[in-house]
Every structure is written in structure tokens, then in C-alpha cells.
Design goal:
Helix content is about 0%, strand content about 45%. β29 and β30 form a beta hairpin. The chain is mainly beta. The strands form eight sheets. A five-stranded mixed sheet has the order 3-28-27-26-25, with no helix packed on it. The chain has a four-stranded antiparallel sheet with strand order 4-31-30-29, with no helix packed on it. Strands 5-6-7-8 form a four-stranded antiparallel sheet, with no helix packed on it. It comes from Pelagicoccus mobilis.
């Protein structure tokens, strides 16, 4: 069994346990990783121009665990929300009229925030921030995780409300109306360490929630919400790392709860290093797919870095809750998959990072684009060698031109402490 802290920081080798799949388990043939499709690698370092935003990096070593594009003050200019795990701060990167960004701390002593999403959780017309907190980023068995909301008073003054505490370390939370009663419920992933959980929280009103644990496994990194089986009710999926290296589906039972989870994909490689997942209709067939990376760089080897099996892949939604695995490309140390039609040609492309690469090589990939030809064949395009150790990206139209810019955050928890970044925006040049 291999154990890691929130998939980004460290693996601790233990004893390998066999995979135990539930429900419609993948066959051994399904679990074999086929080689990636042949793709033409291109270099296009001039496609985006990167610029630091927010406060200067100074002499710090940033630990930006997550960045989210959102117009928090709803002024028509897209902003970003950042989680600085080492400083335990949630910051608002507020875009000014001239395109610069003012950095505003909206939560102090936030107990190592590692993920933030933006919703109007109390239905009062302004945007609140849902924050997942690990409390301690490195391995810890204590129940120290917290889920909190930064409640907006309408003038961008935020009050911290604790929605869940004294649980295994929380890594991700998303909101949606899961039971169709008109308010937003929550899905929460808790990495823990030796123990972890996935739960959903029914909204009872007035910031009160009823919790139900639906999976007890360590290592959940991300959760996503969508109607994955096409029955008109929202389901959710969880990416579970450590010794499990699985993706679980939780189907809505349409009666105020969820069916027993099914592992819809998994790897028998105990160092597979799942690192991130997003949900999107990648092939535009009307069914939501899952895009995920494997590239967590800390494992049995003492030096973090790429592995031959690291890369970017997707699970094609075949309907009725069943999925087919496809490899997009190899990418050592792969993280943070984001899907969008970046070139406005009608098909969905994929962006990803390499957080743990061979940084002694100045030509190692840092930021990658996988451009779709419309037939789900991808060309790998290198966008940047620097900065290194990027951990998180998001994307949006930051100048109102209809073109996409990228925002990124760097986490520099390990050497080399060079070519560092904190918050950046990458604006299109073509």
C-alpha cells in the first residue's frame, strides 16, 4: 500500500493491497494501460505570455494549492481565487479596470486551504467561497480537516462559517442541488491519511447540513458532479489515490440518496500516482466524461520526478453509468487537467501541467496543450518550460475579447527552489 498526502506532496510506501472493485468491476483487460496514441509534439512558446499577478513573490516559497477563475464581485471583470496552503490564506485576485490584479486576503488562518469553489450558497444574490482545508498538508492521521464557507455580505466582506470540522483532512468540495429541493447541497472529498471519506451533505437551510458518508477510503483528491447516467438526476464521482488508484461513481437513487459506489476505473500499478480530475463533455456527444491525470511525483523513489506511465487520459461516458478508458498523451508529473475549446474550432481541447518533471533539464515541459483534431486525436503542444512546479490552473476570458487566458499557481515545497512563481496570468498572443 502506498500512501500520499493529498496526492500533491508525498507518498509513503506501505504494503500493496489488492484492488477490490464493487458492482460492475473492470476486467483485467480493462485495467491494462495501452500505449498512448501517436501524436505530433509541437513547441509554441509564443502562444501565451505569462505575467505575475498579485503581490510580488519576494523571497517566499509559494505553496499555491489551487486557483479558481471567478467574477467574485460580479462587476463584469473576471477575477481569481487562490489558496495559499503554507500561509493558510484565501486570497482574492481582483481584476482592475486596467487589467492589473489587486490581491486581497479574504480569509486568514484558514487551516491550510487547498481548494476553493465559488457559489451563491445562501441564494442571496452574491457569490460565496466554499473552501476545503487540510489543516496540515503533510501526512497526518488526526481528524483535523475543515470545510468552511466565506459568506459574502454583498459588498465583498466575508464571514467565515464552519460547515464541517474535526474530520479527515478535506481536499475538495462541490455544490449542486442533488435532491431537487431548490437549494445547494455539498459533495465533500476527504483525503485523510490512513482513513478518509467521501460524503454528501444535504442542505437543511440556515447553514445547517445533514451529512451522509458514502465511501470510507483514504486518498480522495477531487470530486465532480454531473448527470453521469443520463436519468435527469445529478450524480457525483470521486478520484481516490493512494493504494486504491480508482475512480468511483455515486449514482443518485432519485429518492433522496445515492446508490452504493462503483469503481468505474482503476489501476493495478501501486505507483500510478493519480493527481487530478475534471468533468466535461469531451467528445460533445451530450454525455459528461471524466478527464484525469496521473503524475504525483513523490513515491518509493527518494527523488520526485516523472515516471514513464504518467500522463493525461479520459473516461468516455458510454451511457448508463459505464465508461471507456482512453489515453491522450504521456506527460511526466501530470496535474490539473482543464478542458475547453481553446481554439474555437468546435471541439474540446485539454490543458495540463507537469508539476514534477526533470527540472535539471531546461527543456522539460511545464505547461501543455493537447489540441483536438475533431476526431479525438490530440496533438501535444508545449506552451512553456518556465516557471516550474506549477500545480494548478484555470481558464477564462479575462479581457472580454472572447479569447481564453490561463491563470496558474505554483507550489514550491521541494527543490529546486528556482524558476518559481506564485500567481500568474497567461494571456493569448495569437
Amino acid at each position: 500500500m502506498r500512501s500520499r498526502t493529498f496526492a500533491w506532496i508525498q507518498f509513503i510506501p506501505l504494503a500493496l493491497a489488492p484492488l477490490a472493485f464493487q458492482g460492475c468491476a473492470p476486467t483485467e483487460a480493462d485495467l491494462k494501460l495501452p500505449p498512448p496514441p501517436k501524436a505530433t509534439a509541437q513547441i509554441d512558446l509564443d502562444r501565451f505570455s505569462g505575467q505575475e499577478i498579485g503581490n510580488p513573490i519576494g523571497d517566499r516559497r509559494p505553496w499555491v494549492a489551487h486557483i479558481k477563475a471567478a467574477d467574485l464581485d460580479q462587476d463584469g471583470r473576471l477575477d481569481a481565487i487562490g489558496c495559499e496552503a503554507k500561509d493558510s490564506e484565501v486570497v482574492w485576485l481582483r481584476q482592475q479596470e486596467d487589467g492589473s490584479f489587486q490581491e486581497i486576503v479574504i480569509a486568514e488562518q484558514a487551516q491550510a486551504p487547498v481548494h476553493a469553489e465559488v457559489y451563491d450558497l445562501d441564494a442571496d444574490g452574491d457569490l460565496d467561497v466554499l473552501v476545503s482545508c487540510m489543516n496540515i498538508v503533510f501526512p497526518n492521521n488526526d481528524k483535523i480537516g475543515t470545510l468552511m464557507v466565506l459568506e459574502n455580505d454583498g459588498s465583498q466582506n466575508f464571514t467565515q462559517r464552519i460547515l464541517l470540522e474535526n474530520v479527515e483532512r478535506v481536499t475538495d468540495a462541490r455544490a449542486a442541488d442533488l435532491d431537487k429541493d431548490g437549494d445547494l447541497d455539498l459533495v465533500v472529498g476527504q483525503f485523510g491519511y490512513d482513513q478518509g471519506e467521501v460524503r454528501w451533505m444535504r442542505n437543511l437551510g440556515n447553514w445547517n447540513y445533514e451529512s451522509e458518508v458514502v465511501l470510507r477510503l483514504s486518498g480522495t483528491i477531487n470530486v465532480t458532479i454531473d448527470d453521469y447516467n443520463g436519468d435527469g438526476w445529478l450524480d457525483f464521482a470521486a478520484l481516490v489515490s493512494q493504494q486504491w488508484e480508482e475512480i468511483h461513481l455515486f449514482e443518485n437513487d432519485t429518492n433522496g440518496g445515492f446508490k452504493k459506489s462503483r469503481a468505474i476505473w482503476g489501476s493495478t500499478n501501486d505507483d500510478y500516482a493519480i493527481s487530478g480530475m475534471s468533468s466535461a463533455d469531451l467528445n460533445r456527444d451530450g454525455k459528461p466524461d471524466l478527464v484525469f491525470t496521473n503524475g504525483d511525483g513523490f513515491g518509493p523513489n527518494p527523488v520526485p520526478g516523472p515516471r514513464p506511465w504518467h500522463g493525461v487520459q479520459w473516461l468516455e461516458n458510454k451511457g448508463s453509468g459505464f465508461f471507456k478508458y482512453h489515453r491522450i498523451a504521456d506527460l511526466g508529473g501530470a496535474y490539473a487537467p482543464v478542458t475547453l475549446d481553446i481554439d474555437h474550432d468546435g471541439d474540446m481541447d485539454v490543458l495540463a501541467l507537469s508539476s514534477f518533471n526533470d527540472w535539471s533539464n531546461p527543456k522539460a515541459e511545464s505547461l501543455m496543450l493537447y489540441e483536438n483534431d475533431g476526431n479525438m486525436n490530440y496533438t501535444s503542444i508545449l506552451l512553456a518550460h518556465n516557471p516550474i512546479q506549477l500545480l494548478t490552473i484555470d481558464i477564462g476570458d479575462y479581457d472580454g475579447s472572447g479569447q481564453y487566458s490561463i491563470v496558474s499557481g505554483g507550489m514550491h515545497a521541494y527543490q529546486p527552489y528556482e524558476r518559481m512563481s506564485r500567481f500568474m496570468i497567461w494571456r493569448p498572443q495569437k
